[in-house]
Specification:
The complex is a heterodimer of chains A (275) and B (308). By secondary structure, chain A is mostly helical. Chain A is built from 15 helices and no strands. The chains are: A mainly alpha (275), B mainly alpha (308). Chain B: InterPro entries: MetI-like, MetI-like_sf, Sugar_ABC_transporter.
Protein backbone atom coordinates (compact mmCIF):
# COMPACT_ATOMS: atom_id res chain seq x y z
CA UNK A 1 0.00 0.00 0.00
CA UNK A 2 2.70 2.46 1.04
CA UNK A 3 4.84 1.55 -1.94
CA UNK A 4 2.25 2.66 -4.39
CA UNK A 5 1.68 6.02 -2.72
CA UNK A 6 5.43 6.60 -2.78
CA UNK A 7 5.63 6.18 -6.54
CA UNK A 8 5.83 9.59 -8.09
CA UNK A 9 3.57 10.70 -10.85
CA UNK A 10 6.51 11.16 -13.17
CA UNK A 11 7.48 7.55 -12.74
CA UNK A 12 3.96 6.33 -13.49
CA UNK A 13 3.87 8.40 -16.68
CA UNK A 14 7.32 7.29 -17.80
CA UNK A 15 6.48 3.67 -17.08
CA UNK A 16 3.30 3.92 -19.14
CA UNK A 17 5.20 5.39 -22.11
CA UNK A 18 7.98 2.79 -21.94
CA UNK A 19 5.56 -0.11 -21.64
CA UNK A 20 3.42 1.13 -24.51
CA UNK A 21 6.55 1.31 -26.67
CA UNK A 22 7.55 -2.17 -25.53
CA UNK A 23 4.08 -3.57 -26.23
CA UNK A 24 4.01 -1.98 -29.67
CA UNK A 25 7.40 -3.45 -30.55
CA UNK A 26 6.13 -6.90 -29.58
CA UNK A 27 2.92 -6.47 -31.49
CA UNK A 28 3.80 -4.40 -34.57
CA UNK A 29 5.66 -7.05 -36.60
CA UNK A 30 2.84 -9.52 -36.08
CA UNK A 31 0.26 -6.93 -37.08
CA UNK A 32 2.34 -6.18 -40.15
CA UNK A 33 2.40 -9.87 -41.04
CA UNK A 34 -1.37 -10.17 -40.60
CA UNK A 35 -1.98 -7.04 -42.70
CA UNK A 36 0.27 -8.32 -45.47
CA UNK A 37 -1.59 -11.62 -45.49
CA UNK A 38 -4.76 -9.74 -46.42
CA UNK A 39 -3.09 -7.72 -49.19
CA UNK A 40 -2.61 -8.39 -52.84
CA UNK A 41 1.04 -8.50 -53.89
CA UNK A 42 0.47 -5.16 -55.62
CA UNK A 43 -0.53 -3.61 -52.30
CA UNK A 44 2.43 -5.22 -50.52
CA UNK A 45 4.74 -3.59 -53.07
CA UNK A 46 3.06 -0.17 -52.72
CA UNK A 47 4.25 1.88 -49.72
CA UNK A 48 1.17 4.13 -49.84
CA UNK A 49 -1.10 1.21 -49.01
CA UNK A 50 0.73 0.18 -45.84
CA UNK A 51 -2.33 0.70 -43.70
CA UNK A 52 -5.07 1.63 -46.19
CA UNK A 53 -5.90 -1.14 -48.60
CA UNK A 54 -8.83 -3.31 -49.61
CA UNK A 55 -8.50 -6.55 -47.68
CA UNK A 56 -8.63 -9.70 -49.73
CA UNK A 57 -8.87 -13.35 -48.76
CA UNK A 58 -7.21 -14.49 -51.96
CA UNK A 59 -3.94 -15.38 -50.21
CA UNK A 60 -5.72 -17.62 -47.76
CA UNK A 61 -7.78 -19.30 -50.44
CA UNK A 62 -4.61 -19.80 -52.49
CA UNK A 63 -2.83 -21.40 -49.53
CA UNK A 64 -5.70 -23.63 -48.50
CA UNK A 65 -6.53 -24.51 -52.10
CA UNK A 66 -3.32 -26.51 -52.13
CA UNK A 67 -4.52 -29.87 -50.87
CA UNK A 68 -1.07 -30.42 -49.40
CA UNK A 69 -1.36 -27.54 -46.99
CA UNK A 70 -4.24 -29.13 -45.13
CA UNK A 71 -2.28 -32.36 -45.08
CA UNK A 72 0.71 -30.56 -43.55
CA UNK A 73 -1.62 -29.04 -40.96
CA UNK A 74 -2.88 -32.50 -40.05
CA UNK A 75 0.70 -33.84 -39.97
CA UNK A 76 1.76 -31.15 -37.51
CA UNK A 77 -1.28 -31.95 -35.40
CA UNK A 78 -0.69 -35.72 -35.41
CA UNK A 79 2.99 -35.35 -34.57
CA UNK A 80 2.31 -32.70 -31.89
CA UNK A 81 -0.41 -34.69 -30.16
CA UNK A 82 1.38 -38.02 -30.56
CA UNK A 83 4.73 -36.86 -29.26
CA UNK A 84 3.16 -34.91 -26.39
CA UNK A 85 0.99 -37.84 -25.29
CA UNK A 86 3.78 -40.41 -25.40
CA UNK A 87 6.25 -38.05 -23.75
CA UNK A 88 3.81 -37.42 -20.90
CA UNK A 89 3.38 -41.17 -20.49
CA UNK A 90 7.09 -41.74 -19.88
CA UNK A 91 8.08 -38.28 -18.59
CA UNK A 92 5.61 -37.80 -15.75
CA UNK A 93 6.39 -41.06 -13.88
CA UNK A 94 10.11 -40.47 -14.43
CA UNK A 95 9.87 -36.96 -12.98
CA UNK A 96 8.01 -38.35 -9.96
CA UNK A 97 10.63 -41.00 -9.33
CA UNK A 98 13.48 -38.52 -9.83
CA UNK A 99 11.92 -36.04 -7.43
CA UNK A 100 11.09 -38.58 -4.71
CA UNK A 101 14.31 -40.56 -4.92
CA UNK A 102 16.64 -37.71 -5.86
CA UNK A 103 18.11 -39.49 -8.89
CA UNK A 104 20.68 -36.83 -9.69
CA UNK A 105 22.57 -38.69 -12.42
CA UNK A 106 19.45 -39.84 -14.26
CA UNK A 107 17.75 -36.46 -14.12
CA UNK A 108 21.03 -34.85 -15.17
CA UNK A 109 21.14 -37.14 -18.20
CA UNK A 110 17.56 -36.30 -19.16
CA UNK A 111 18.20 -32.59 -18.74
CA UNK A 112 21.38 -32.82 -20.83
CA UNK A 113 19.08 -33.72 -23.71
CA UNK A 114 17.55 -30.26 -23.25
CA UNK A 115 20.98 -28.73 -23.81
CA UNK A 116 22.52 -30.81 -26.59
CA UNK A 117 22.42 -29.15 -30.04
CA UNK A 118 20.10 -31.20 -32.20
CA UNK A 119 22.52 -31.07 -35.11
CA UNK A 120 24.78 -33.34 -33.03
CA UNK A 121 22.19 -36.11 -33.25
CA UNK A 122 20.75 -35.64 -36.71
CA UNK A 123 23.24 -37.70 -38.71
CA UNK A 124 23.07 -40.75 -36.40
CA UNK A 125 19.29 -40.44 -36.19
CA UNK A 126 18.99 -40.23 -39.92
CA UNK A 127 20.96 -43.42 -40.41
CA UNK A 128 19.34 -45.30 -37.56
CA UNK A 129 15.85 -44.35 -38.75
CA UNK A 130 16.80 -45.06 -42.36
CA UNK A 131 18.06 -48.54 -41.51
CA UNK A 132 14.75 -49.18 -39.72
CA UNK A 133 12.91 -47.78 -42.77
CA UNK A 134 11.35 -45.10 -40.59
CA UNK A 135 12.50 -41.99 -42.47
CA UNK A 136 9.54 -40.28 -44.06
CA UNK A 137 7.06 -41.91 -41.68
CA UNK A 138 5.25 -40.44 -38.71
CA UNK A 139 7.07 -42.66 -36.21
CA UNK A 140 10.50 -41.08 -36.67
CA UNK A 141 8.99 -37.61 -36.39
CA UNK A 142 6.98 -38.47 -33.28
CA UNK A 143 10.06 -40.00 -31.66
CA UNK A 144 12.29 -37.07 -32.58
CA UNK A 145 9.76 -34.55 -31.26
CA UNK A 146 9.49 -36.60 -28.05
CA UNK A 147 13.17 -35.88 -27.62
CA UNK A 148 12.22 -32.23 -27.04
CA UNK A 149 9.13 -33.02 -24.96
CA UNK A 150 10.58 -35.52 -22.50
CA UNK A 151 13.20 -33.22 -20.91
CA UNK A 152 10.69 -30.37 -20.94
CA UNK A 153 8.09 -32.45 -19.11
CA UNK A 154 10.60 -33.89 -16.64
CA UNK A 155 11.90 -30.38 -15.95
CA UNK A 156 8.41 -28.95 -15.33
CA UNK A 157 7.06 -31.94 -13.40
CA UNK A 158 9.98 -32.33 -10.97
CA UNK A 159 9.13 -28.83 -9.76
CA UNK A 160 5.45 -29.71 -9.57
CA UNK A 161 6.00 -32.91 -7.57
CA UNK A 162 8.14 -30.98 -5.07
CA UNK A 163 4.92 -29.30 -4.03
CA UNK A 164 3.06 -32.55 -3.33
CA UNK A 165 3.64 -33.65 0.29
CA UNK A 166 4.75 -37.27 0.74
CA UNK A 167 2.35 -37.63 3.67
CA UNK A 168 -0.50 -37.93 1.16
CA UNK A 169 1.01 -41.08 -0.30
CA UNK A 170 1.65 -42.50 3.16
CA UNK A 171 -1.98 -41.94 4.05
CA UNK A 172 -3.03 -43.72 0.86
CA UNK A 173 -0.70 -46.60 1.75
CA UNK A 174 -2.41 -46.92 5.13
CA UNK A 175 -5.70 -47.13 3.22
CA UNK A 176 -4.33 -50.13 1.33
CA UNK A 177 -3.00 -48.66 -1.92
CA UNK A 178 0.33 -49.78 -3.31
CA UNK A 179 3.08 -47.21 -3.93
CA UNK A 180 2.32 -47.08 -7.64
CA UNK A 181 -1.41 -47.11 -6.87
CA UNK A 182 -0.96 -44.09 -4.61
CA UNK A 183 0.97 -42.33 -7.38
CA UNK A 184 -1.74 -43.06 -9.92
CA UNK A 185 -4.81 -42.37 -7.84
CA UNK A 186 -3.70 -39.76 -5.32
CA UNK A 187 -0.74 -37.86 -6.75
CA UNK A 188 -1.67 -37.66 -10.44
CA UNK A 189 -5.09 -36.04 -9.85
CA UNK A 190 -3.36 -33.40 -7.74
CA UNK A 191 -0.91 -32.40 -10.47
CA UNK A 192 -3.35 -32.02 -13.36
CA UNK A 193 -2.50 -28.30 -13.73
CA UNK A 194 1.19 -29.19 -13.93
CA UNK A 195 0.44 -31.83 -16.55
CA UNK A 196 -1.57 -29.26 -18.49
CA UNK A 197 1.41 -26.90 -18.34
CA UNK A 198 3.77 -29.57 -19.66
CA UNK A 199 1.33 -30.69 -22.33
CA UNK A 200 0.73 -27.19 -23.68
CA UNK A 201 4.42 -26.34 -23.70
CA UNK A 202 5.33 -29.64 -25.29
CA UNK A 203 2.73 -29.19 -28.02
CA UNK A 204 3.94 -25.64 -28.76
CA UNK A 205 7.55 -26.80 -29.07
CA UNK A 206 6.56 -29.68 -31.31
CA UNK A 207 4.37 -27.52 -33.53
CA UNK A 208 7.13 -24.94 -33.87
CA UNK A 209 9.96 -27.40 -34.46
CA UNK A 210 11.64 -27.14 -37.82
CA UNK A 211 14.89 -29.04 -38.06
CA UNK A 212 13.70 -32.56 -37.27
CA UNK A 213 11.03 -32.55 -39.94
CA UNK A 214 13.49 -30.84 -42.31
CA UNK A 215 15.68 -33.93 -42.14
CA UNK A 216 13.30 -36.76 -41.31
CA UNK A 217 9.99 -36.01 -43.03
CA UNK A 218 8.88 -37.28 -46.39
CA UNK A 219 6.56 -35.68 -48.93
CA UNK A 220 3.45 -36.93 -47.17
CA UNK A 221 4.60 -36.37 -43.57
CA UNK A 222 5.98 -32.87 -43.96
CA UNK A 223 5.09 -30.50 -41.12
CA UNK A 224 3.96 -26.89 -41.48
CA UNK A 225 7.30 -25.18 -40.74
CA UNK A 226 9.02 -27.23 -43.46
CA UNK A 227 6.15 -26.58 -45.85
CA UNK A 228 6.48 -22.84 -45.24
CA UNK A 229 10.24 -23.01 -45.65
CA UNK A 230 9.74 -24.66 -49.05
CA UNK A 231 7.69 -21.64 -50.14
CA UNK A 232 10.84 -19.60 -50.70
CA UNK A 233 12.55 -22.24 -52.80
CA UNK A 234 11.49 -20.43 -55.95
CA UNK A 235 12.94 -17.42 -57.72
CA UNK A 236 10.32 -14.86 -56.74
CA UNK A 237 8.47 -15.00 -53.47
CA UNK A 238 4.68 -14.77 -53.35
CA UNK A 239 4.74 -12.63 -50.21
CA UNK A 240 0.99 -12.46 -49.77
CA UNK A 241 0.52 -16.23 -49.81
CA UNK A 242 3.64 -16.72 -47.69
CA UNK A 243 2.33 -14.36 -45.02
CA UNK A 244 -1.08 -16.05 -45.12
CA UNK A 245 0.65 -19.38 -44.52
CA UNK A 246 2.71 -17.86 -41.70
CA UNK A 247 -0.41 -16.41 -40.05
CA UNK A 248 -2.14 -19.79 -40.39
CA UNK A 249 0.68 -21.63 -38.64
CA UNK A 250 1.13 -19.00 -35.90
CA UNK A 251 -2.55 -18.40 -35.16
CA UNK A 252 -3.14 -21.69 -33.27
CA UNK A 253 -0.13 -20.94 -31.08
CA UNK A 254 -1.36 -17.43 -30.33
CA UNK A 255 -4.81 -18.76 -29.46
CA UNK A 256 -3.22 -21.30 -27.13
CA UNK A 257 -1.13 -18.60 -25.49
CA UNK A 258 -4.18 -16.41 -24.96
CA UNK A 259 -6.39 -19.17 -23.56
CA UNK A 260 -3.68 -20.94 -21.59
CA UNK A 261 -1.61 -17.91 -20.60
CA UNK A 262 -1.21 -19.14 -17.02
CA UNK A 263 0.14 -22.50 -18.20
CA UNK A 264 2.46 -21.08 -20.84
CA UNK A 265 4.01 -18.69 -18.32
CA UNK A 266 4.33 -21.44 -15.69
CA UNK A 267 6.03 -23.72 -18.20
CA UNK A 268 8.45 -21.11 -19.56
CA UNK A 269 9.60 -20.12 -16.07
CA UNK A 270 9.61 -23.63 -14.56
CA UNK A 271 12.71 -24.46 -12.62
CA UNK A 272 14.40 -21.15 -13.33
CA UNK A 273 13.35 -19.53 -10.07
CA UNK A 274 13.73 -22.28 -7.52
CA UNK A 275 16.82 -23.54 -9.23
CA UNK B 1 -10.62 -51.63 -2.05
CA UNK B 2 -7.86 -51.87 -4.59
CA UNK B 3 -5.90 -54.35 -2.50
CA UNK B 4 -8.89 -56.67 -2.57
CA UNK B 5 -9.28 -56.22 -6.30
CA UNK B 6 -5.63 -56.97 -7.06
CA UNK B 7 -5.70 -59.93 -4.68
CA UNK B 8 -8.38 -61.59 -6.76
CA UNK B 9 -6.41 -61.34 -9.97
CA UNK B 10 -4.17 -64.23 -9.14
CA UNK B 11 -0.69 -64.63 -7.88
CA UNK B 12 1.12 -63.80 -11.12
CA UNK B 13 -0.35 -60.34 -11.27
CA UNK B 14 0.16 -59.95 -7.55
CA UNK B 15 3.76 -60.98 -7.87
CA UNK B 16 4.33 -58.59 -10.78
CA UNK B 17 2.70 -55.76 -8.89
CA UNK B 18 4.79 -56.48 -5.79
CA UNK B 19 7.92 -56.54 -7.90
CA UNK B 20 6.99 -53.26 -9.64
CA UNK B 21 6.30 -51.60 -6.31
CA UNK B 22 9.48 -52.80 -4.73
CA UNK B 23 11.48 -51.52 -7.69
CA UNK B 24 9.23 -48.52 -8.33
CA UNK B 25 12.14 -46.11 -8.45
CA UNK B 26 13.41 -47.69 -11.67
CA UNK B 27 10.08 -48.96 -13.00
CA UNK B 28 8.78 -45.40 -13.14
CA UNK B 29 11.98 -43.78 -14.38
CA UNK B 30 13.33 -46.44 -16.73
CA UNK B 31 11.23 -45.74 -19.85
CA UNK B 32 12.34 -42.10 -19.99
CA UNK B 33 15.96 -42.97 -19.17
CA UNK B 34 16.08 -45.72 -21.78
CA UNK B 35 14.51 -43.31 -24.29
CA UNK B 36 17.19 -40.70 -23.66
CA UNK B 37 19.98 -43.27 -23.77
CA UNK B 38 18.67 -44.64 -27.07
CA UNK B 39 18.24 -41.22 -28.65
CA UNK B 40 21.17 -39.35 -27.16
CA UNK B 41 23.87 -41.57 -25.67
CA UNK B 42 23.89 -44.15 -28.46
CA UNK B 43 23.93 -41.54 -31.26
CA UNK B 44 26.69 -39.66 -29.44
CA UNK B 45 28.83 -42.80 -29.36
CA UNK B 46 28.05 -43.34 -33.04
CA UNK B 47 29.10 -39.76 -33.74
CA UNK B 48 32.26 -40.26 -31.71
CA UNK B 49 33.19 -43.26 -33.85
CA UNK B 50 32.33 -41.38 -37.06
CA UNK B 51 34.51 -38.47 -35.99
CA UNK B 52 37.59 -40.71 -36.18
CA UNK B 53 36.80 -41.81 -39.73
CA UNK B 54 36.85 -40.31 -43.20
CA UNK B 55 33.19 -41.24 -43.81
CA UNK B 56 31.61 -39.14 -46.54
CA UNK B 57 29.10 -39.27 -49.35
CA UNK B 58 27.09 -42.20 -48.12
CA UNK B 59 27.30 -43.78 -44.72
CA UNK B 60 27.01 -47.23 -46.28
CA UNK B 61 30.28 -46.68 -48.10
CA UNK B 62 33.39 -48.17 -46.54
CA UNK B 63 35.47 -45.76 -44.53
CA UNK B 64 38.89 -45.74 -42.92
CA UNK B 65 39.90 -44.64 -39.48
CA UNK B 66 41.86 -41.43 -39.67
CA UNK B 67 41.79 -40.89 -35.88
CA UNK B 68 42.39 -37.26 -34.99
CA UNK B 69 42.80 -35.96 -38.53
CA UNK B 70 39.28 -34.50 -38.62
CA UNK B 71 39.80 -32.69 -35.34
CA UNK B 72 43.16 -31.35 -36.47
CA UNK B 73 41.85 -30.08 -39.78
CA UNK B 74 38.81 -28.45 -38.13
CA UNK B 75 40.84 -26.71 -35.45
CA UNK B 76 43.23 -25.51 -38.16
CA UNK B 77 40.44 -24.30 -40.43
CA UNK B 78 40.57 -20.51 -40.41
CA UNK B 79 38.25 -20.18 -43.42
CA UNK B 80 35.03 -21.66 -42.05
CA UNK B 81 35.46 -23.02 -38.51
CA UNK B 82 36.99 -20.13 -36.59
CA UNK B 83 34.80 -17.47 -38.22
CA UNK B 84 31.80 -19.67 -37.32
CA UNK B 85 32.99 -19.86 -33.70
CA UNK B 86 33.42 -16.10 -33.64
CA UNK B 87 29.94 -15.51 -35.12
CA UNK B 88 28.38 -17.90 -32.62
CA UNK B 89 30.10 -16.07 -29.76
CA UNK B 90 29.24 -12.59 -30.99
CA UNK B 91 25.65 -13.49 -31.85
CA UNK B 92 25.12 -15.03 -28.41
CA UNK B 93 26.95 -12.33 -26.48
CA UNK B 94 25.24 -9.37 -28.14
CA UNK B 95 21.74 -10.87 -28.32
CA UNK B 96 21.77 -12.22 -24.78
CA UNK B 97 23.23 -9.02 -23.33
CA UNK B 98 20.45 -7.00 -24.95
CA UNK B 99 17.83 -9.53 -23.87
CA UNK B 100 19.02 -9.47 -20.26
CA UNK B 101 19.24 -5.67 -20.11
CA UNK B 102 15.91 -4.94 -21.75
CA UNK B 103 14.35 -7.90 -19.95
CA UNK B 104 15.45 -6.63 -16.55
CA UNK B 105 14.19 -3.12 -17.30
CA UNK B 106 10.77 -4.30 -18.44
CA UNK B 107 10.47 -6.82 -15.60
CA UNK B 108 11.11 -4.03 -13.07
CA UNK B 109 8.50 -1.85 -14.79
CA UNK B 110 6.00 -4.71 -14.66
CA UNK B 111 6.77 -5.60 -11.05
CA UNK B 112 3.84 -3.86 -9.36
CA UNK B 113 0.21 -4.13 -10.39
CA UNK B 114 -1.25 -1.31 -12.47
CA UNK B 115 -3.95 -0.87 -15.02
CA UNK B 116 -3.01 -2.57 -18.28
CA UNK B 117 -0.30 -4.81 -16.83
CA UNK B 118 -2.27 -7.89 -17.80
CA UNK B 119 -2.43 -6.66 -21.38
CA UNK B 120 1.33 -6.12 -21.61
CA UNK B 121 1.92 -9.58 -20.17
CA UNK B 122 -0.30 -11.16 -22.82
CA UNK B 123 1.16 -9.17 -25.72
CA UNK B 124 4.71 -10.15 -24.84
CA UNK B 125 3.82 -13.83 -25.05
CA UNK B 126 3.18 -13.50 -28.77
CA UNK B 127 6.82 -13.42 -29.95
CA UNK B 128 7.58 -16.35 -27.64
CA UNK B 129 4.97 -18.74 -28.97
CA UNK B 130 5.06 -17.69 -32.62
CA UNK B 131 6.58 -20.36 -34.88
CA UNK B 132 10.26 -19.42 -35.48
CA UNK B 133 10.06 -20.24 -39.18
CA UNK B 134 7.06 -17.92 -39.56
CA UNK B 135 8.84 -15.29 -37.48
CA UNK B 136 11.86 -15.55 -39.77
CA UNK B 137 9.65 -15.14 -42.87
CA UNK B 138 7.83 -12.21 -41.29
CA UNK B 139 11.09 -10.36 -40.60
CA UNK B 140 12.36 -11.26 -44.04
CA UNK B 141 9.45 -9.29 -45.49
CA UNK B 142 9.79 -6.46 -42.96
CA UNK B 143 13.51 -6.12 -43.77
CA UNK B 144 13.00 -6.62 -47.49
CA UNK B 145 15.09 -3.79 -49.03
CA UNK B 146 12.55 -2.50 -51.56
CA UNK B 147 9.12 -3.19 -50.10
CA UNK B 148 9.84 -3.85 -46.42
CA UNK B 149 8.40 -1.84 -43.58
CA UNK B 150 11.83 -1.20 -42.00
CA UNK B 151 13.09 0.84 -44.93
CA UNK B 152 9.72 2.55 -45.17
CA UNK B 153 10.15 3.77 -41.59
CA UNK B 154 13.70 4.91 -42.36
CA UNK B 155 12.25 6.79 -45.35
CA UNK B 156 9.74 8.62 -43.13
CA UNK B 157 12.61 9.60 -40.85
CA UNK B 158 14.61 10.80 -43.84
CA UNK B 159 17.28 8.14 -43.39
CA UNK B 160 18.88 6.13 -46.21
CA UNK B 161 17.52 2.67 -46.93
CA UNK B 162 19.49 -0.31 -45.63
CA UNK B 163 20.10 -3.80 -47.00
CA UNK B 164 19.37 -5.35 -43.60
CA UNK B 165 19.33 -9.15 -43.89
CA UNK B 166 20.31 -9.17 -47.56
CA UNK B 167 23.48 -7.11 -46.99
CA UNK B 168 26.35 -9.33 -45.78
CA UNK B 169 27.69 -6.59 -43.54
CA UNK B 170 24.41 -6.00 -41.68
CA UNK B 171 22.81 -9.45 -41.81
CA UNK B 172 24.16 -10.78 -38.52
CA UNK B 173 23.38 -7.67 -36.44
CA UNK B 174 19.88 -7.53 -37.97
CA UNK B 175 19.24 -11.14 -37.07
CA UNK B 176 20.51 -10.49 -33.54
CA UNK B 177 17.77 -7.88 -33.23
CA UNK B 178 15.20 -10.44 -34.39
CA UNK B 179 16.47 -12.84 -31.73
CA UNK B 180 16.15 -10.07 -29.16
CA UNK B 181 12.59 -9.41 -30.32
CA UNK B 182 11.62 -13.04 -30.02
CA UNK B 183 13.32 -14.03 -26.77
CA UNK B 184 13.42 -10.96 -24.51
CA UNK B 185 9.92 -11.89 -23.25
CA UNK B 186 11.34 -15.18 -21.99
CA UNK B 187 13.85 -13.28 -19.85
CA UNK B 188 11.10 -10.97 -18.61
CA UNK B 189 8.91 -13.90 -17.57
CA UNK B 190 11.73 -15.57 -15.64
CA UNK B 191 12.87 -12.36 -13.93
CA UNK B 192 9.27 -11.43 -13.05
CA UNK B 193 8.76 -14.82 -11.47
CA UNK B 194 11.91 -14.21 -9.43
CA UNK B 195 10.89 -10.65 -8.47
CA UNK B 196 7.50 -11.80 -7.19
CA UNK B 197 9.19 -14.06 -4.65
CA UNK B 198 11.38 -11.32 -3.18
CA UNK B 199 10.51 -10.04 0.29
CA UNK B 200 9.50 -6.38 0.49
CA UNK B 201 11.09 -5.56 3.85
CA UNK B 202 14.61 -4.84 2.57
CA UNK B 203 13.17 -2.57 -0.12
CA UNK B 204 11.28 -0.62 2.51
CA UNK B 205 14.29 -0.48 4.82
CA UNK B 206 16.52 0.81 2.03
CA UNK B 207 13.89 3.35 1.07
CA UNK B 208 13.62 4.63 4.62
CA UNK B 209 17.40 4.86 4.77
CA UNK B 210 17.18 7.20 1.79
CA UNK B 211 18.57 4.93 -0.94
CA UNK B 212 17.82 6.08 -4.47
CA UNK B 213 15.92 3.91 -6.93
CA UNK B 214 19.15 2.93 -8.65
CA UNK B 215 20.88 2.13 -5.34
CA UNK B 216 17.93 0.03 -4.25
CA UNK B 217 18.08 -1.92 -7.48
CA UNK B 218 21.85 -2.37 -7.48
CA UNK B 219 22.40 -3.12 -3.78
CA UNK B 220 19.11 -4.70 -2.71
CA UNK B 221 17.11 -6.18 -5.59
CA UNK B 222 19.89 -7.43 -7.85
CA UNK B 223 21.85 -9.41 -5.21
CA UNK B 224 18.65 -11.14 -4.08
CA UNK B 225 17.70 -11.87 -7.68
CA UNK B 226 21.13 -13.17 -8.67
CA UNK B 227 20.19 -16.86 -8.86
CA UNK B 228 17.26 -16.09 -11.14
CA UNK B 229 19.37 -13.77 -13.31
CA UNK B 230 21.97 -16.49 -13.80
CA UNK B 231 19.26 -19.04 -14.58
CA UNK B 232 17.84 -16.76 -17.29
CA UNK B 233 21.35 -16.09 -18.60
CA UNK B 234 22.08 -19.83 -18.71
CA UNK B 235 18.89 -20.69 -20.53
CA UNK B 236 19.19 -17.91 -23.08
CA UNK B 237 22.92 -18.33 -23.73
CA UNK B 238 22.55 -22.02 -24.50
CA UNK B 239 19.55 -21.49 -26.74
CA UNK B 240 21.16 -18.53 -28.52
CA UNK B 241 24.26 -20.61 -29.27
CA UNK B 242 21.93 -23.15 -30.83
CA UNK B 243 19.95 -20.69 -32.99
CA UNK B 244 19.13 -22.46 -36.22
CA UNK B 245 15.66 -21.76 -37.62
CA UNK B 246 16.05 -18.00 -37.89
CA UNK B 247 19.49 -18.14 -39.51
CA UNK B 248 18.78 -21.04 -41.85
CA UNK B 249 15.42 -19.73 -43.05
CA UNK B 250 16.58 -16.18 -43.72
CA UNK B 251 20.01 -16.90 -45.17
CA UNK B 252 19.80 -20.48 -46.34
CA UNK B 253 22.48 -23.11 -46.25
CA UNK B 254 26.01 -21.95 -45.51
CA UNK B 255 24.76 -18.74 -43.87
CA UNK B 256 24.62 -16.60 -47.00
CA UNK B 257 26.81 -16.01 -50.04
CA UNK B 258 29.89 -15.12 -47.98
CA UNK B 259 28.88 -17.22 -44.96
CA UNK B 260 28.01 -13.99 -43.17
CA UNK B 261 25.67 -15.59 -40.65
CA UNK B 262 27.27 -19.04 -40.55
CA UNK B 263 27.40 -20.04 -36.89
CA UNK B 264 28.64 -23.41 -35.65
CA UNK B 265 25.14 -24.85 -35.87
CA UNK B 266 24.66 -23.72 -39.47
CA UNK B 267 28.12 -24.91 -40.46
CA UNK B 268 27.56 -28.29 -38.83
CA UNK B 269 24.27 -28.70 -40.67
CA UNK B 270 25.89 -27.87 -44.01
CA UNK B 271 28.77 -30.28 -43.42
CA UNK B 272 26.28 -33.01 -42.50
CA UNK B 273 23.55 -32.62 -45.05
CA UNK B 274 24.88 -30.53 -47.92
CA UNK B 275 28.49 -31.72 -48.21
CA UNK B 276 27.81 -35.14 -46.61
CA UNK B 277 31.21 -34.96 -44.89
CA UNK B 278 30.08 -37.20 -42.09
CA UNK B 279 33.44 -37.77 -40.45
CA UNK B 280 34.32 -34.09 -40.44
CA UNK B 281 30.80 -33.12 -39.36
CA UNK B 282 30.94 -35.58 -36.46
CA UNK B 283 34.15 -34.04 -35.19
CA UNK B 284 32.68 -30.55 -35.56
CA UNK B 285 29.43 -31.30 -33.70
CA UNK B 286 31.37 -32.87 -30.83
CA UNK B 287 33.58 -29.78 -30.52
CA UNK B 288 30.41 -27.66 -30.66
CA UNK B 289 28.71 -29.78 -28.00
CA UNK B 290 31.77 -29.49 -25.73
CA UNK B 291 31.69 -25.69 -26.06
CA UNK B 292 28.04 -25.68 -24.99
CA UNK B 293 28.66 -28.03 -22.10
CA UNK B 294 31.53 -25.77 -21.05
CA UNK B 295 29.28 -22.72 -20.94
CA UNK B 296 26.68 -24.76 -19.04
CA UNK B 297 29.16 -25.93 -16.44
CA UNK B 298 30.65 -22.48 -15.86
CA UNK B 299 27.28 -20.75 -15.51
CA UNK B 300 25.85 -23.56 -13.40
CA UNK B 301 28.77 -23.29 -11.00
CA UNK B 302 28.09 -19.59 -10.58
CA UNK B 303 24.45 -20.38 -9.97
CA UNK B 304 25.20 -22.92 -7.28
CA UNK B 305 27.70 -20.58 -5.61
CA UNK B 306 24.98 -17.98 -5.35
CA UNK B 307 22.42 -20.33 -3.95
CA UNK B 308 24.54 -21.04 -0.93
Amino acid sequence: MTTRSLESRGFVGLRAVLLIVFGLICLAPIVWMVLASFKTNIDIYDPSSTFSFTPTLQNYSAVFAQADFLQFFINSLIIGVGSTGLALLIGVPAAFSMQRFGMAKSSGLVLLSRVIPHVTLLVPWYFIFASLQMVGGYSSLVISHMFISVPLIVWVMIGVFEGVPEELEEAARVDGLTHIGAFRRIVIPLVVPGIATSAILSFIFSWNNFVFALVLSGNSTRTLPVAIFNFIGYASIDWGALMAACVSITAPMIVMALLGQKYVVAGMTAGAVKG
Amino acid sequence: MSAVATGKRGSLWQGLSDWANRHRKWVLAAPAIIFVIALMVVPLLYTLVLSFTDAQGSIQRAFDFVWFENYISILGDTARFWPAVWRTVIFTAVAVTLEMTIGMAVALLLRRPFMGRGLVRVVMLLPLVATPVAVAMMWLLIFEPTVGFANQVLGWLGLPAQGWISDPSTALPTLMLVDVWQWTPMVILILLAGLVGLPEEQQEAARIDGASTWQRFWHVTLPMLKTTVIAALLLRSIDAMKTFDLLYVTKGTGGGSSHEVETLNIYAYALSFDYNEYGMAAALVLIYFLIIVGVLVVLNMRRKENRR
